[in-house]
Amino acid sequence: MLKINNVSKSFAGLLAVDQCSFAIREGTISALIGPNGAGKSTLFNCISRIYPVDSGEIYYAKNRLDLLPPHRIARLGIGRSFQLTRTLDHLSVTENLALHTAGGFGSHLLQRGVTPNDKQRADEIMEFLGISALADLDMGSLSYGQKKLLDLGAVLMADPDLILLDEPAAGVNLRLLENIIEKLVALKEQGKTILLVEHNMDVVMGVSDDVIVMSAGRIIATGKPSAIQNNPDVLEAYLGRNT
Ligand SMILES: Nc1ncnc2c1ncn2[C@@H]1O[C@H](COP(=O)(O)OP(=O)(O)OP(=O)(O)O)[C@@H](O)[C@H]1O
Ligand SMILES: [Mg+2]
């Protein structure tokens, strides 16, 4: 469904993504893991066209993503979250979700407020996430964990087929972690395809069908979670002996 072919990206001489290739299968959850600075977010940014690639190709079904402008990516049914939460604290939770409807981030809110359609979609998402009670609260009054959950909600607003999540469970408490895991599995059961960057190994091992491991810009292993867990190259990358 998504195929990364020999993608490289450097920043002023620093090779952040170095000839990476992997594919993810439709209807599965794949985890992209690796030590800090491995290049995971950069690769995400290449897939969602925040950054142009230096070389290589990115295929989504028959489309060459690397040749498309960023605004076309969402229209193809690809949604993403960012490593750091992005919210407008003076707006309500419903209004924040409404910023992420198909029209693009915030393009319409100031002109026309929350339309009945946007509100209905936001209500559906909040119900799915189990946070309907938060609808009218100011975003600024929410906890960090609630904001993390709303990051996922924001991605879901446009009903993407392919969901890219950069550390959806970073820093959340155990109860919320379990909630997030449950939602990811529910999304997969709805037929969604998910690629997530995640440091929490309980999440990675608990939900992933496939794991892709990056270290120092390169893909060093791909496989089932159980195989990855015992892969000596992966253990070495995490212990930092080969960097
Ligand atoms: N916009 C940028 N300009 C310059 N260097 C960058 C930029 N973005 C990332 N880098 C560098 O590229 C490398 C890969 O960074 P990246 O953020 O992709 O790592 P990561 O695997 O997501 O790490 P983490 O787990 O800490 O989020 C790092 O050395 C980082 O400093
Ligand atoms: Mg990152």
- Separation of termini? 32 Å
Number of helices, counting only DSSP H or I runs of 4 residues or more:
10
Radius of gyration: 18 Å
CATH hierarchy, class of the largest domain: Alpha Beta
For the record, the count of structural domains works out to 2
Helix fraction by DSSP (H/I, runs of at least 4): 25-40%
Number of strands: 10
Strand content: 15-25%
Coarse morphology? globular
Q: What structural category arises from helix and sheet content?
A: alpha/beta
- Which architecture name of the largest domain does CATH use? 3-Layer(aba) Sandwich
- The CATH topology of the largest domain corresponds to Rossmann fold
Largest sheet descriptor:
6 strands, mixed
List unreliable stretches of 5+ residues. Answer: none
Please write the string of helix (H) and strand (E) elements.
Answer: EEEHEEHEHHHHEHEHEEHH
Mean pLDDT equals: 90
Strand arrangement, major sheet? 6-7-8-3-9-10
* Bound chemical compounds: adenosine-5'-triphosphate, magnesium ion
CATH superfamily of the largest domain: P-loop containing nucleotide triphosphate hydrolases
Annotation keywords:
243 residues; alpha/beta; Rossmann fold; 2 domains; four-stranded antiparallel β-sheet; 36% helix; 24% strand; binds adenosine-5'-triphosphate; binds magnesium ion
